[in-house]
């Protein structure tokens, strides 16, 4: 277990200055949101701030896939692979798209 900021503290920090949150805190902040648009905004901000971390791109791919936009999902997966060519989650998402067909 990681001891750190509370959910409310993370939300407040995101609202005031998201760059002061760690990548893990930002990714977690997205899980606190119920709307897809809010999650997407947080993942995009995470990708902007931590541009070498593949996880935000992978999560954006998941959102796009769930909305039925496979083309966009594949674009985000490719961005994830450009950050980490062996990203297991991105490979899993690519496999899910292949299984769909």
**Radius of gyration (Å):** 14 Å
Number of strands: 0
Which percent range describes the beta-strand content?
A: under 5%
H/E element order? HHHHHH
Q: Which structural class should the secondary elements be placed in?
A: mainly alpha
What overall geometry do the principal axes of the alpha carbons give? globular
Integer average pLDDT: 95
Q: Give the biggest sheet.
A: none
SS element count, helices:
6
Measured distance between first and last alpha carbons = 39 Å
Helix content: over 70%
Unreliable parts? none
Description of the structure:
- The chain starts with 6 loop residues before the first helix and ends with a helix.
- It is an all-alpha fold.
- The protein has six helices and no strands.
- The longest helix is centred in the middle third of the chain and has 14 residues.
- Helix 2 runs antiparallel to helix 3 and helix 4 runs antiparallel to helix 5.
Which terms summarize this structure?
single chain, 101 residues, mainly alpha, 0% strand, globular
Summarize it.
The chain has 101 residues and is mostly helical. It contains six helices and no strands.
Layout: helices, strands, pairs:
Elements (H helix, E strand, L loop, with lengths): L6 H10 L6 H9 L4 H14 L5 H12 L3 H14 L4 H13 L1
Helix pairs in contact: 2-3, 3-4, 4-5, 4-6, 5-6
